[in-house]
Write a structure and sequence with these properties.
The complex is a heterodimer of chains A (about 180) and B (about 400). With about 180 residues, chain A is an alpha/beta fold. Chain A has two domains: about 30 residues, no CATH class; about 140 residues, Diaminopimelate Epimerase, Chain A, domain 1 (Roll). Chain A has five helices and four strands. In chain A, β2, α3 and β3 form a beta-alpha-beta unit. In chain A, α2 runs parallel beside α5 and α4 runs antiparallel to α5. The radius of gyration of chain B is 30 Å and the shape is elongated. Chain B is α/β, with parallel strands linked by helices. Chain B is built from ten helices and eight strands. Helix content of chain B is about 45%, strand content about 15%. Chain B folds into three domains: about 200 residues, Diaminopimelate Epimerase, Chain A, domain 1, CATH 3.10.310.50; about 80 residues, no CATH class; about 35 residues, no CATH class. In chain B, a hairpin with a 4-residue loop joins β3 and β4. In chain B, the strands form two sheets. In chain B, strands 1-2-3-4-5 form a five-stranded mixed β-sheet, with helices on both faces. The longest helix of chain B is centred in the middle third of the chain and has 28 residues. In chain B, α2 runs parallel beside α5 and α4 packs antiparallel against α5. The chains are: A alpha/beta (about 180), B alpha/beta (about 400). Chains A and B meet through α4 and α5 of A and β6, β7 and β8 of B.
């Protein structure tokens, strides 16, 4: 996996970055916020309306059924004392999203920092790279967030992320059958 | 969404109607391009045909002028002058740029003869000049029942006039037209027709467009003066027409301006389509009826502007919000580029600032294929010269 600070390489067994000394275990002491994972949507900040939450849950459920992968959405009041980038990385590994093979996507919305972060499992990087995921958020989430429309922003960005991965999976299946 | 499909349907329908209407003008198929002589009726005997061809060939040899003679039975109701112009431009007589073509068309059953000069000869072969030439030499032969002789006379006289014209030009030191590339040339508006209906007994009643005042004399009974006079020749009418066109174009620009900049539709899209097509009809009609309205350039301008407006309208069509019918932003971008091994993925975002309509759709970009041309060129690069892989055999004795 990649180090959230310096984009260096972290080993799964000893998650300590060689170049910058980032240690994932430090987070366990500092961040005590997260409770256990509760399904696909963990709306801790209460940013979503009932309707929007229902729509997003339905979409994510479809995605998980179709591809057999995992996708999770978390909203936070604040990621303090660490940055949202580090937080999403830590949460991804703590919850083991997508199981052992990291076949999952975690999207984190942090309201105080006005940040949205996405963490893609490194197996899924062949379908969607970090830059592409960031581009999707930039295009589909940020314009809505500027108007405080979290429902639509999260729905559309997750929808596109899901579609990209679905497309990649179906392509791969088609290639396998062709070969 | 529904509105958009409806409007698209209207547009396609109207376009089809327009196309059909346009093609009906060309109901009579074009004759085969056979220069110098296309004798569809078999009117001329071999000797006469040879003579006619020879005159044209001599002209081509000396001045690179293309003189074509077309003999058909009838234009099937199409205005003979228009038809001759169409044939001229379809055949592309004369060298491109020099436009030194000339077409003499005989419609035997219609009893009409047309002379269509290229741009180079349009001042020489003015309407009155052609009329007098035809009525002096051709029409009497036709009336006397010797059509072959009439064709021969017409060709001879026209060829002689071209020769005279070119020699005068050549002596005054103008550049030789023979240097230009052959190609498509435009005939000009100068059009002359002659009606040689044998109507001396009916005192000119059969001759279309004849002045009628001097019907008693044998000459004017078939000279018919101008077979076709454009109603758009009067400057006032022209001015009004140009004004209408300018107004129309300005209105269209204003419509687009309001749509794209202000985000308001002045009228519903289908109404705009109908108005556009109506104006297209009118312009096409005017351009087809009055070639000499602006020396044959206006039809190109009109068709060009029509094409541009059609394309821009089709483009605008995808920018109309289905919920509030106002302008909306449509943004497409590629998420995955297609490769030779997998198809790509693109997304299309439609967002309306006015009503908040937002729709994201993805589309699949088909995977790349190697075109046959590139593969053939790569194979060609290996085909030049023999190549050896270093094997081979030897023998000794």
């Amino acid at each position: 996996m990649k180090c959230p600070n310096c984009e260096g390489f972290l080993n799964d067994d000893t998650p300590v970055c060689e170049s910058c000394g980032f240690d994932i275990h430090e987070f366990d002491k500092v961040l005590t916020i997260p409770a256990e994972r509760d399904g696909l949507i963990n709306d801790w900040a209460g940013a979503l309306s009932e309707d929007g939450s229902g729509r997003i849950k339905e979409r994510l459920h479809n995605f998980c059924e179709q591809t057999g992968m995992d996708c999770c959405l978390v909203t936070l009041e604040s990621a303090a004392p660490r940055s949202p980038r580090e937080f999403v990385f830590w949460l991804f590994n703590r919850w083991q999203i997508g199981g052992e093979g990291h076949l999952g996507v975690l999207v984190l919305l942090s309201l105080a920092e006005r940040r949205i972060e996405v963490e893609v499992g490194n197996v899924l990087e062949k379908y969607i790279t970090d830059d592409e995921a960031a581009g999707v958020l930039e295009h589909h989430a940020v314009p809505f967030f500027k108007k405080s429309d979290y429902d639509n922003g999260l729905y559309h960005s997750l929808d596109i992320l899901a579609r990209i991965i679905e497309h990649g999976v179906s392509e791969e299946k088609a290639n396998e059958t062709a070969n | 969404m529904k509105l958009r499909t409806n409007a698209l349907l209207y547009g396609v329908l109207a376009f089809m109607i327009l196309t059909l209407a346009g093609s009906s003008c060309l109901a009579r198929s074009m004759p085969v391009r056979r220069v110098p002589l296309n004798d569809e009726m078999g009117l001329l005997d071999d000797q006469m045909a040879l003579e006619v061809k020879r005159m044209s060939q001599l002209l081509y040899r000396d001045f690179k002028s293309e003189l074509a003679v077309l003999i058909i039975s009838s234009t099937d109701g199409v205005n003979a002058s228009d038809y001759a112009l169409k044939v001229f431009n379809h055949w592309g007589l004369g060298q491109a740029g020099v436009d030194n073509g000339m077409l003499i068309m005989f419609a035997i059953d219609d009893r009409r003869v047309e002379i269509k000069p290229g741009t180079r000869y349009k001042h020489k072969f003015s309407e009155s000049f052609c009329t007098s030439l035809l009525s002096n030499y051709v029409v009497p032969e036709m009336r006397a029942g010797r059509p072959a002789q009439g064709v021969f006379m017409a060709t001879r006289e026209v060829a002689a006039e071209i020769r005279r014209f070119e020699e005068a030009k050549g002596s005054s030191g103008s550049s030789s037209p023979g240097e230009a590339l052959p190609g498509h040339s435009q005939s000009t508006s100068s059009q002359v027709s002659n009606n040689y209906r044998n109507s001396s007994t009916s005192s000119g009643s059969g001759s279309s467009g004849s002045s009628g005042s001097s019907a008693g004399t044998s000459r004017s009974s078939y000279s018919g003066s101008s077979g076709y006079s454009s109603p758009f020749n009067s400057p006032v009418l022209r001015f009004v027409l140009y004004g209408c066109m300018a107004l129309w174009i300005a209105g269209g620009i204003f419509y687009y301006y309001m749509t794209f900049s202000k985000g308001t539709l002045l009228m519903s899209p289908w109404l705009f389509i109908i108005l556009m097509l109506l104006s297209g009809f009118i312009i096409a009609f005017v351009a087809s009826k009055a070639f000499n309205i602006a020396d044959n350039t206006l039809d190109q301008v009109a068709s060009g502007s029509g094409g541009i407006s059609l394309i821009s309208f089709l483009w605008m069509f995808s920018h109309i919000c289905p919920r509030c019918n106002k302008y909306m932003n449509v943004h497409t971008r590629t998420l995955h580029y297609a490769t030779y091994y997998s198809s790509g993925l693109g997304e299309k975002t439609e967002h309306c600032d006015h009503c908040g309509y937002h729709r994201v759709s993805t589309y699949t970009i088909p995977r790349k294929t190697r075109s046959s041309s590139s593969s053939s060129s790569s194979s060609r690069s290996y085909s030049g010269g023999g190549r050896s892989s270093g094997g081979g055999g030897g023998a000794s004795w």
